[in-house]
Amino acid sequence: CVAAGRTRTPREDEWCLRTCYGKRGPESVAPSRRVRPTSQLRGRPPSPSQLLPSAMLRFVLMVNKQGQTRLAQYYEHMVMDERCALEAEVIRKCLARTETQCSFFEYRGYKVVYRRYASLFFIVGVEGEDENELAILEFIHALVETLDRYFENVCELDIMFNLEKAHFILDEMVMNGCIIETNKNNILAPVHLLDKATSS
């Protein structure tokens, strides 16, 4: 309302409010029509903390009993050396835990949630104090059930020889670290379409 470099007087502030909102005041305007924050008007990009939710998946691993990684998906940038060190330590900790111990623990700022199915360990790393570990366990179970339906009793060899399909299914469930779908029919629909397109 006023040229840059000048401080508005109370009268000018009142005039701006009436011009932008009318006599009803700013509280009566729908949220989508309110004036954007000054930082956005000046062209400043929002900070990562404004874009990312407080809790997100950071990595998903599928590991066998020998500690060999069969699938790894990361949702944050990490150099290869750091990634290898993180994987080795997380896998070692998961394999060393007994069945009577809790299925989640904290490591290097991550909450690590894991679950064993036959010879495979499914490991998920999340970041954020508000993350629900039991919900992550349910996500792991939904992922296993979806893989089981697609591969018809999934095993380690199915993951090894159909790695791109396993990644495809995981990508249908998680986007940028956020869980977006857990319905098995919705997840597998595009996978079946791809199978039909490639077979024809």
From TrEMBL:
<keyword id="KW-0813">Transport</keyword>
<feature type="domain" description="AP complex mu/sigma subunit">
    <location>
        <begin position="56"/>
        <end position="197"/>
    </location>
</feature>
<dbReference type="Pfam" id="PF01217">
    <property type="entry name" value="Clat_adaptor_s"/>
</dbReference>
<keyword id="KW-0472">Membrane</keyword>
<keyword id="KW-0653">Protein transport</keyword>
<feature type="region of interest" description="Disordered">
    <location>
        <begin position="26"/>
        <end position="48"/>
    </location>
</feature>
<protein>
    <recommendedName>
        <fullName>AP complex mu/sigma subunit domain-containing protein</fullName>
    </recommendedName>
</protein>
<comment type="similarity">
    <text>Belongs to the adaptor complexes small subunit family.</text>
</comment>
<dbReference type="InterPro" id="IPR016635">
    <property type="entry name" value="AP_complex_ssu"/>
</dbReference>
<dbReference type="InterPro" id="IPR011012">
    <property type="entry name" value="Longin-like_dom_sf"/>
</dbReference>
<dbReference type="GO" id="GO:0005737">
    <property type="term" value="C:cytoplasm"/>
</dbReference>
<dbReference type="InterPro" id="IPR022775">
    <property type="entry name" value="AP_mu_sigma_su"/>
</dbReference>
<dbReference type="GO" id="GO:0015031">
    <property type="term" value="P:protein transport"/>
</dbReference>
<dbReference type="GO" id="GO:0012505">
    <property type="term" value="C:endomembrane system"/>
</dbReference>
